[in-house]
Amino acid sequence: MTTTSDATLEPRPADEWWRSAVIYQIYPRSFADGNGDGTGDLAGVRSRLGYLRDLGVDAIWYTPWYASPLADGGYDVRDYRTIDPAFGSLADAEALIAEARELGIRTIVDVVPNHISSEHEWFRAALAAGPGSPERERFWFQDGKGPDGDQMPTGWVSSFQGDTWTRTTNPDGTPGQWYLHLFTPEQPDVNWNHPDVRQEHEDVLRFWFDRGAAGIRIDSAALIIKDPALPEVPATPGPGEHPHLDRDEIHDVYRGWRRVADDYAEPRVLVGEVWLADHERFAQYLRSDEMHTAFNFDFMARPWDAKELRESIRTTLEAHAPVGAPATWVLSNHDVTRPVTRYGREDSSFDFAAKRFGTPSDLDLGTCRARAAALLTGALPGALYVYQGDELGLPEADVPRELIQDPMHFRSEGVDPGRDGCRVPLPWTRTGSSLGFGPDGGAAPWLPQPADWAERSVQAQDGDPESMLSLYRTALHLRRELTALHDEELTWLDLGGDDVLAFARGAGFACVVNLGTTPVPLPAGADVLLASGPVDGAVGPDIAVWLGLPS
Ligand code: GLC
């Protein structure tokens, strides 16, 4: 049950818009297919900008749209200054950025500093130039260990499981040096001690900022610096002791990037993908001369449990306060299990290592909780990220094994289903060969859409006040209207015990989320502004409400 809002959306003021922005994540391959080849593209996005304006988003973050062999869905960049032809052209990207901005929507592009594609001209040149060449110094080429050099330089484990070194072959066919890749062999790590690497990335930032990008999302941001001695990973590394994670020298890189971003009349924004368990080390990336914000994966990975979520919210806000940076709230992205599926599972936490085929989920329960989670995250102080399709309540799709493309699946030797289940092309209409993803009769979507997604399409949900889409639209409009949700700090309220998350934002607004099993009576005089489900004087299990409080 939702209440509606007829507020007209005003674009946010330029100043510090990112502190409480709603940022919608587009996975371009799967958003909308303009030319009917089965792959999403920029023409598709341009045709759907009105949808995003009506949804009420402030900015769009695009996962990589650059020329790429797609060994890792575009996170293997061949050329940062070219749009992959499957998505369109640079002119299309420029037009898209400008058209979105006219609708009050800013653009954030993805920058992947840890690695490039093995087809990037730098890596091809390094292979061709051979051992000891300056071209190889831009990467981590090493001789192997052992008398024949056939042992890897380190035993580091890949973020995608498996080895992190691949041996090259010399032009005469003999085995050659090894190169480092924390992800797939098609993604060689670059050497951030090399001045070319630093210069090139600052130039890439300027390239996109000059074209109107309002910010960048920084991929694998804590991994880029390596200990040049290449030691093994200690059993329990202390702060800054890990050879390839969160090294102290990393901050110098982001300070340089901040200077580039601050050079613009409307300063550009740096958003980090920083996966770190240590909250204090995490916050160091958000000091006033480094990144503006970073994704809050701690919150995202927690189970649907009041104690866990309360602890995450508390520690998040405490960690951000000293550096003056806003928190971010993220329920999912293109790497993790969709919330509707995750919250319907017995174990509703998220862990890459635990993903398995066929894990049961109660999707009705998951949907109910995902609705409540949308209102919870929408009411917390900071920026909010919405991954495409979560506003439609899409569940994780079961992609048939023979169609899976994600390298995480293959590198797990088929045990991990990988990430394609959250990357299935969006359903826009009830009918049509691709449910409106592309033109009717066009090529089949690059991943198949489940048959029952017709009823989850935008068309099916549009105008239905009970739908997930209506809930998101109303919440995002209200969030923009209610200044308390931008300006006021969070104050915890004691309502209904440990299983209830209740907090105020200023004197006039409260959010109550019931994660327990007994209904929680509404506070006296409270006015229900928005609810994730039916509310009749009390907030039932797995329901969240936004309340106006009497003054
Ligand atoms: C990030 C991206 C992920 C990608 C990886 C390697 O975690 O979100 O999709 O596979 O980096 O670039």
TrEMBL record:
Keyword Hydrolase: yes
Catalytic activity, EC: 3.2.1.-
UniProt-listed SUPFAM superfamilies: (Trans)glycosidases (SSF51445)
The keyword Nucleotide-binding appears for this protein: no
Source organism superkingdom: Bacteria
Gene3D superfamilies from the UniProt entry: Glycosidases, Oligo-1,6-glucosidase, Domain 2
Main enzyme class: hydrolase
UniProt domain Glycosyl hydrolase family 13 catalytic: residue ranges: 25-423
InterPro entries: GH (IPR017853), GH13_cat_dom (IPR006047), O16G_dom_2 (IPR045857)
Family note: Belongs to the glycosyl hydrolase 13 family.
Protein name: Glycoside hydrolase family 13 protein
